[in-house]
Structure formats: C-alpha cells, structure tokens
Amino acid sequence: MSEPISASDVYLHRLAVLRFQRRRGFGHVVFVWSCVSFTNVCKRCQYSTTVKEQTSIENGKKCGTVIIRAEELSNCRESVMLQFCGNKLDKKDFFGKSDPFLVFYRSNEDGSYTICHKTEVVKNTLDPVWQAFKIPVRALCNGDYDRSIKVEVYDWDRDGGHDFIGEFSTSYREMCRSQSQFHVYEVLPVLLPCSSDWQVTLLSCLVDTELSFLDYIRGGMLLTCVLLCCCVWAAGNPSQPTSLHYMSPYQLNDYAVALRAIGEIIQDYDSDKLFPALGFGAKLPPDGRVSHEFPLNGNPQNPYCSGIDGVMEAYYQSLKSVRLYGPTHFSPVINHVARYASAVTDGSQYFILLIISDGVITDMAQTKESIVNAASLPMSIIIVGVGPAEFDEMIELDGDEERISSQGRYAERDIVQFVPFRDYIDRRGNHILSMARLAKEVLAEIPDQFLSYMRTRGIKPGPQPPPYTPCPPPAIHPLHTRRVSRI
C-alpha cells in the first residue's frame, strides 16, 4: 500500500534500493531487499510498461516478484486539495458501526491501477468526514484530466483484514466541475449488481499551481550565500600535512573542497557573484584579539569576494595572516546573517549561510536560540563537518529527528542541513567526484526550505521577464553605403 515513486526520486545512473515490508489486509506480500535499476526499466518501456523483477533468494526459497509499472510523467504542476464525507455507509462491525477510510487509485495506461492516496480512519461512524488532503495532479492522474480515478471504501479492522464496503469512479475533470457545489457518488458493492444507499460526497475541490524554486529565481529573487570557515587550533597548523587547513601544492584540503563544491553551484544563482566570506575562532593581527566573525579578505568595510575563485584566494591568504585559536562559536555569525535577513522579509532576497567546521560547538545553547530566531527569517544554514571528530551537536542542530527548540520555543521550520564531509570523499582521491557528491547532498534541502518560507507567508514569485529574442541586424540603406578604395 505504498505510494508510487517518480523518476525524480532516483538517478538514471544509480540503483534504487527498495525495502518491502509485510502489510496485512491487502492480499500480500513478503519481500527482502530488492535492487532495481531504473535504467533497465526504462530500456524496456516506451510510454508505459509492466516489468517483473525476481527478488533475491533467502534460505533457499524465492521471495516473490516485484512488479514495476513505468510511465512517463507529465509536466503538470497543479495540485488539488480534496475533502470527502460519507453518508449511510454499510455497517460492518458486529458491536459497532464501521471505521471507514478511502483508498484512491490512479489508472495506468496499461489498464492497471496504482494506489496514490489513502485517507485516515474515522472510527465508529457511518457518516464520516475525512480531513482535507493535498495531492499533486500528476500523482492522481498524471496530468490526464479525463483518466479514471477509482476510489475504494473500506472498514478498518485491527488485525489488518479490512472489510471492503464498495467503490466508485470519477475523474479529475469531473471533480473540478464540483468546485462550486457538492458532488455525490454512489458507493457500489462490486459483488452485488444492485444500487445502494451508501454515498460519498466531495465537499471541496481547490486547485492550486505548485510553484518551484526556479520560479522565484526567474522572478528576480536574489540568493545571497555567506561562507564561513572555522579557524580554531583544533584543525592543526596549516603548515603541517596533518592539518585540515594544509595548503598542499598538489591537492585541495577538505575546507577548500567544501568551499569550491558548494560555491561553484550557488554562484550560478547569484547575479553579482559577490560572496561575503567570514572566518571565526582566530586571533587577528596586530593585537591578537580573538574574533568570531572576521572577513577572510581582511577588509571589514567590504568582506565581499568576487566569485568562488576570490573566496578561495581570500581563504588561503587568511591562513597566512591570522593565528588559529578557538573556541568554536556558531551563534555570532548566525546572528550576523540574521540581522541582514530580518531587513528583507518580502521575498526579494534569501540568505544561505554555509558553515564549515571541524570541532565541537562550544556555545550550543546560544546557537540553538539563534537558529530558533532565524527560522522565521528568509535564510537557511548549511553545516559541513570536516575531519574525524564526532559531530553529535551538529546532528542535533539538523533537526531531522526532532525539531530544534530553545527555552520552550520550537523553530518555526527546519532551516539547518548538516553533512559530514567524510561520508562523501572519493576513496581514490578524485576531488571532482567528491565535490559533486557533497554539493548534491548539501543543497538537497535548500529548495524545500526556501519554498516553505514563501508558502507560509503567501509570497508569490515576481513577474518573469519576457523571453530573450535577438534583434535582427539593422537594414543598411543603399545611400548610406560607400565604396572603399584600395590600393
């Protein structure tokens, strides 16, 4: 009963490893690990196909067959918010009424059906009202407005043997016609060729167009990336090969790989390609004071570096002029970027703070508070952990398992992405491959974090400029030409 995956969930040059688990009440199935190449599926299909893949063998026994249905996705970007209710549904429970829920199936081009949504269970009633749910139109009908959508009604049972009540069919176009009025469907029991009084009513159908990250970029939104390097002594003396900051003439160190990998991608979204690059945890000349937000280029009035090459040059120069010290404080620079982000909350600019660090965070409580405050601002934070240390604090800041909080306040949204650099190093020393792997993982959550900010504030993209059309060369009037004499 899992929902289908789309081609965007896998890579054409990689294997998608899927784990299938037992689900009771729908006829099957027990599978072990099955490794399926999406490329092989595509080779066997043109527009739509069904492929059977034999799973692995466990304890000398075959574990079943995985049936893969592949179909080219449409470019439909609509989503729809639907809400249904039931009326006088069949009573299935001996000591009660029913616990009904709906299962939606999309019809495929080969005539088969694939589950695309399942509602929650409403307990002990024959007149349920299910919660509204939002679903992409691609998942519902692959953008084909007239394609059949089958809806089955079940009575939930604790043991998983759910009782079938009946079904009805509709289409996306039919549901859209019901936006101004209720639409009532008769629920028919398949085994009984007779009508029934059981009904499911479409209460609301609200259509929306899904906006993408690129819609905002095309609309003029500015993306500003602030790069931050940890300069604490724990990284080691930059003149020694064991240092994480070691400036080798032959290859990039871990800090440099991370800076270049992420900067080269982000600079394509930055119109002026000027990056404020900061460092923290070092003693600055001439008096040796410790700073937790100093410009890598040494210019406090203008910390901007031209392109990622300018950032790399400033990084190497700073290693020669500052003295690595400590401790590892994140909160000052988070607050620094947050001050700028708080001044542009209209969606015209979004900030990305990249922190590259190798040590234990020494101001964890203050950092949590800074992140909770920043979660309501147009900014995201990327943390790349380099070196062999344990990154327990950074994992906690990521907030994937539990939303980060400070003094009883929870972050409005998830804005932190943590990536341990060592997990993406190519063991053969291929820095280009390492940078590609790191950049993919580091930037994976940025579009969703960005869109979550825009959606919660109702900010739409700006108007897109008209497509560029080159002007034809001007026609030259014969009287404006002259003959040039040559010797």
From TrEMBL:
One of its GO terms (biological process) is cellular response to calcium ion. GO terms for molecular function: calcium-dependent phospholipid binding; metal ion binding. Residues 462-476 have a biased composition (Pro residues). Keywords: Calcium, Metal-binding, Repeat. Gene3D superfamilies: C2 domain. GO terms for cellular component: plasma membrane. Residues 457-487 are annotated as: Disordered. InterPro entries: C2_dom (IPR000008), C2_domain_sf (IPR035892), C2B_Copine (IPR037768), Copine (IPR045052), Copine_C (IPR010734), VWF_A (IPR002035), vWFA_dom_sf (IPR036465). It holds the Pfam family C2. It comes from the Eukaryota. Residues 62-185 form the C2 domain. Belongs to the copine family. This is Copine VIII.
